[in-house]
Amino acid sequence: MDVYLPIAELSLNVLLLLGLGGVAGVLAGMFGVGGGFLLTPLLIFIGVPPAVAVASQANQVIATSVTGLLTHWQRGNVDVRMGLILLLGGLLGSTAGVQLFAVLKRFGQVDFVIHIGYVLLLLSIGIMMVVEVWSAWRRRRANEPARRKMHQHFLVHRLPLKLRFYKSKLYVSALLPAGLGFAVGVLSAILGIGGGFVLVPAMIYLLGMPTAVVIGTSLFQILFVAINVTFLQAVQNQTVDVVLALILILGGAVGAPVGTRLAANLPAFQLRGLLAVLILAMALELLFELVAPPAAIHTLGDVVRMP
Amino acid sequence: MTRAAMTAPHTLPVLVATWLAMWMSSAACAQPLLVDLSRPRVSITSAFRGADVLVFGAIDGPGDVVITVTGASTRQTVLRKERVFGLWVNAGRLTFDDVPSFYAVAATRPLEQILPPGGVAGIPVTLDERLLSMRALGAQRRRPIDVTDFRQGLIEAKRREGLFSEAISPVTVVGARLFRAELRFPSKLPVGDYEVRAYVFRDGQVVSAVSRPLVVSKAGFSARIFEWSRELAPIYGVVAIVLALVIGWLAGTLTRRI
After folding, report:
1. What residue in A sits closest to B87 (Cα-Cα)?
2. Residue A234 and residue A243: Cα distance in Å, rounded?
3. How do beta strands B103-107 and B169-170 pair?
4. Domain residue limits, chain B
5. Does residue A296 fall inside a structural domain?
6. Which of A48, A298, A302, A306 to mutate to test the interface with B (most CBs of B within 10 A)?
7. Could B245 and A300 be called an inter-chain contact, meaning their C-beta atoms sit closer than 8 Å?
8. Which of A113, A303, B40, B121 is the most buried (most CB within 10 A)?
9. Which residues of A touch B249 (CB under 8 A)?
10. Proportion of chain B above pLDDT 70, given as a percent
11. What is the pLDDT of residues B119-154, one digit of tens each?
12. Residue A39 three-state SS
């Protein structure tokens, strides 16, 4: 059963799209990540134009992050003050990112930037996760407890505009979360991901936030940045395919609780290792596509009706 | 009749024959070439997977029938991948004017047996003849070999998407008077006003020519969505956001109940 995607301008199998959304949902439920990092390359792989895949993905991120945020909000795991400052940077960053996207689109380089962006993103995340899993495994073998300080003091703690964040038990410069939000906002606009993947480790290791409030606070920022990106992409680049997004969202809504249940019954440690391998494989596949001689040297670019 | 033609192809010859008999019994008999399409419009709906359009008609004597289908004239950019630091990047680009968005030819016999060598002046039939009017923008600043390379690349890319057909589809002649040809349109079909032209060739000369319009447009739900995304972009964006919020919220509350 095929469905015509009006903005992507091609027909694709509904079940395939639902399945992709479902896989992203399972990942979201299992690891608390959006799954966009896997979904966008897969959509591009089945023929969706990269610009449309990225913009529609931002629309999908809204749904997954609101679902997650609801849970964390009820448990009081959201540092609103920190979230707002992250968001301030995020709104600026994503707005700048959408402008950059429009420029790249005009020069016909959007596909390449998305492609190489994903290679770099997936490679760095994959390597980070492998290292983390490896050291956790070694610690477990040595039966050592994880060493953890409240937080470390870097140069960044000398920045001005210090603010007190009660829920995170932090006293840091507002420039730090704002800058982090900005960087993730740019990524979100160009790659269509929520950015939880980058945001969560940065909040733990760079800001030194307590793990309990990290996920909820990052979802708070991701939700509003995704809303901003979706709106701007729709208005400026007209690349949001609402039909595609809705199918992915429905698939994800079914997949997420499955993922949560799976995560509860499977050993978390092995799961993280599995995810790391999956991400690295994806990164290598995308890299291979960039390095290997393409099947076709020439492709069709912009087309306009002649007067 | 159009509906019947679409759903039951095997009844077509009968229908066409009856209709043509009625048609020719009238004054239309005097016309040397009669042509019509099984439908004047191809609608791209949410279930669109390509379309077949039947061209049929009558000729008043011997000769070969050649049918050309041309999409709207466009300004098309071609991108070329080049190797930069070991990576394949879209490094080259060239824009051409007057590129038909679609081009296909159907004929009773191979074209080289119908057309005189070099073709008929002013009547483009083969793809190469049609593309003679195609112009590269800023060609004077490019090396000629470069323009040729992009031109060839454009044709290949269009062929891959089925927008320039490689083969000549057959035109079947029944009883030396009636002819029919099935035109196949791919699923990735550009919208616009198409033109279906039928020619009768006799001894390398065009005896008569008739043109019929064919409209390719988005229709139904997907057409509305596309229009809204262009004309009401801010509202479209807000609706997309609200839908995602509502579904996400519902999914969150429902799964906690279960």
Report:
1. A291
2. 13
3. parallel
4. 2-218, 219-258
5. no
6. A298
7. no
8. A113
9. 66-67, 70
10. 87
11. 888 888 899 889 988 888 887 888 888 889 999 999
12. helix
